[in-house]
# Entry
Amino acid sequence: MAETDKTTTTSFFGGTPEERAIRRRREWIATIAILAVIVFIAVLSSSNDDKESKPAAVQYRSRTITAVDVSPWPFTVTGGILRCRGINVVTFETDGVEYALNGPAQAVYPQPGRLWAEDPQLGYGLKKSMGPTIAMGLALC
# Structure
């Protein structure tokens, strides 16, 4: 009978005892890594739930503006609150009413109509440019 080397002996499950030990360590490391990823995702999703449960007013940036802040001043009122509501939704609030200043805001808010000043240089009832005001609002987003 030939002698067998104990280090090269294989079992029913395959591999030497050292190879099986290495495989078990790798399996444990993979299991721990997967659990760490699951915990990380759970923590992130719970922190997003906290953000969504805050009042809407806290999530939006705003600032008070007047004719000193924007040129040309496109409104018939002396001032109001400029807001960014969500993704590129720019609004202007005065006297408790919020108006749309750009396309994305028009889906939710009324157009400024009576607040939008006419441009005397252009004549024919054409309105002053909202461009600088909208740009200022987008900067808040």
About this structure: The chain has two domains: 6-52, 56-139. The beta strands are 61-66, 79-84, 90-94, 97-100.
